Amino acid sequence: MNHGRRDTPHTPDDQGTAADSHTALRLEAVRKVYRLGDDDVVALHHADLRVGADEIVALVGPSGSGKTTLCSIAGAILSPTAGRVVVGEQDITEFGESELSRVRRESVGFVFQAVNLVPFLTARENLLVIDELGSRNRSAARARADQLLDELGLADRASNLPSQLSGGQRQRVAIGRALMNEPSLVLFDEPTSALDTQLGEKVMELIRHEMKARGTAAVIVTHDERMTHYADRVVHITDGVLAA
Amino acid sequence: MYLATREMMRAKVRYGLLMAAIGLLVFLILFQQTLQSGLLDAFVGAVRSQSAPVLVFSVDGRRNFQGSVVTPPLEASIRRVDGVGRAGQIGVRNLPARAGGKLTQVALIGYEVEGLGSPGRLTAGRLPAATDEVVASDANRGDGFDIGQKVRIEPGGRELEVVGLAPDAQLLVTPTLYGSYDTLTEAVRAFNPSATDRPLSSAIGVGPAAGFAPSELASRINAANADADALTATDAAAATPGVFQVRQSFQIILLLYALVVPFVTGLFFLIITFQKANALTLLRAVGAPRCRLATALLVQVALVMLGGIALGTLLYAPLASQRLGGLVFHFQAGAVLFWSVLLLSLGLLSALLSVRRVLAIDPVGATTGAGVAR
Q: Is A26 inside any structural domain?
């Protein structure tokens, strides 16, 4: 199955045709160093990456290669030790804690690997909480949450708590939550790792469909090469170094 | 509000149990407070509510009517002190009497001058106008001491008619009667015909002359006479033997309750914060500001505390207007307000450790599933 992935090779800093005109994410010489006791551990080495406005990039690498660190920096969860990070038109490199929170709230969508839903909120409330934390346009938020749940095939599950949903349904709610703030960039961290192959492919199809339908850029972190064909472009990372 | 109330709605039993526990503690605090007030009113209400601004006992009388005897020379020296406006004898005797068909002990307070030892306030009726009339404590109105009822001193058969009721005016948890000094004299003679002399006074009620404060006058009397022990009415009530110990015992009990409430609340919310660490981390990762999550926590604490206080007050209200033996309880709105503010403040303070943990949540935990970082 080919979903439009480009077959021509790219370098990590290949800006692609779309990225030239409009870039959802730009990382320039990004470096991240963790301090562990007396040692410095370099998680990212001068990473350069551009993601176009409606581009889907698969970030592939083994465990500990720096995928999640890169994803976290791109999503304003972590600050880089060095380099420059631009999300949409905002240079967030020097942003402080509250500004980074705002970027996460308004400009970026997340689907995490481990914890994705607030257990005491229903599926609908898990989407609405994004509006509660931000601009608070309640009537518009309700309409958007209902529309997203409908599009994701969860209209009849809107009042269910996460514990009453299957793994695939929870993942779809998480995708809806990530799209709730109409982000320019959505980051998926191992979105299929907890799902079987068949369900994983369905989720990847859904991600691609939703991203392309909205013209939203996405970075999908995965170690599963079988899922990469849903991306427009694949970027490999090994020991913190990006490679084509 | 949204996060705070949604979570509480989804865990009604958990938060309801905490609210019930706080409600029970609030009820116990308010009831103990009322019990303390009822006890003190029954012990020294008569001292507190009588009308003399300053009471002068003999120094070896240990500051109570029953132990103090003021001799005529001591009384004369008190009357000579500069600053004394008016002065009058106050005599107190415990006598057996029959009231409502039952034989009981009564405290009869006789005052020489109206306004110096007479009841400061009446809830019904009037002050005595004859030697066979008395005012009774309204705490005992149901025991044969209501207006129009007669109390007979036994032996002797002297009858006294109740013509007025005074609030919280008991002495040593005994039915208490107020009459003129002549009423006291006649009652004592009826009880003991061989006591022909006018009974010696237990204290001297003193009113300050113009320009003197009661406390200043008390100091002057004490300085002028080593055998006199002058106190303002409030101080006399507080200094009655046993009052301090009763008050201190209740204060210790109330302090322990007041510490248990924030301890329980703080521990509960600390456990909750640990339990929902993943959810809080996720919320931080999707852009929830630290202060927003901390506020949600404090809103929950405030709602639980207010619910508990309301529940405790509802339990307390019907009991607060009951009688227990010779004790009369009153609903104490001031105590409810004081404890509500104090417990709400302590509850919010107790959540500071939980707030600190919430503020320490690192959103990067959402990418690793680590939850609260530390």
A: no
- DSSP designation for B153: E
Give chain A's domain count. Answer: 1
ipTM: 0.86
Nearest Cβ partner of A112 from B2, B3, B285?
B285
| Amino acid identity for residue B60 in this structure | D
Contact (CB<8Å) B282/A115: yes
| Residue A226 counted as domain residue | yes
Cα separation, B3 vs A129, whole angstroms:
8
Q: Which site among B2, B364, B367 would you substitute to test the A interface, given the most A Cβ atoms closer than 10 Å to its Cβ?
A: B367
- Reply yes or no on whether the pLDDT at B309 is more than 50: yes
In a domain, A207, yes or no: yes
Q: Which residue of A has its CA nearest to B12?
A: A120
With CB atoms and an 8 Å threshold, state whether A130 touches B286: yes
In order of A187, A189, A191, A208, B138, the CA distances from A194 in angstroms are 17, 11, 8, 18, 77
Mean pLDDT is lowest, of A51-55, A136-140, B358-362, for: A136-140
pLDDT at B151: 94
- Flag if A114 and B366 touch (Cβ within 8 Å): yes
In this structure, what DSSP letter does residue B200 have? Answer: P
Which pTM was predicted? 0.80
Minimal CA separation from B2 to chain A, in Å: 7
| Structure-block tokens of residue B168 | 């919280």
Cβ contacts (< 8 Å) between A67 and chain B: which residues? none
Instruction: Read off the CATH number of the domain in which A180 is found.
Output: 3.40.50.300
Range in B60-69, B245-254, B261-270 the model is least confident about: B60-69
**In what helix (H) or strand (E) does residue B334 lie, and over which residues does it extend?**
helix B333-350
Q: What is the pLDDT of residue A11?
A: 40
Backbone dihedral angles phi then psi of residue A84, each to the nearest 5 degrees: -135, 140
Q: Look up the domain containing A110 and give its range.
A: 53-77+97-243
Nearest residue in chain B measured CA to CA from A102 = B287
Partnered with residue B205 across adjacent β-strands are B55, B88
In a domain, A156, yes or no: yes
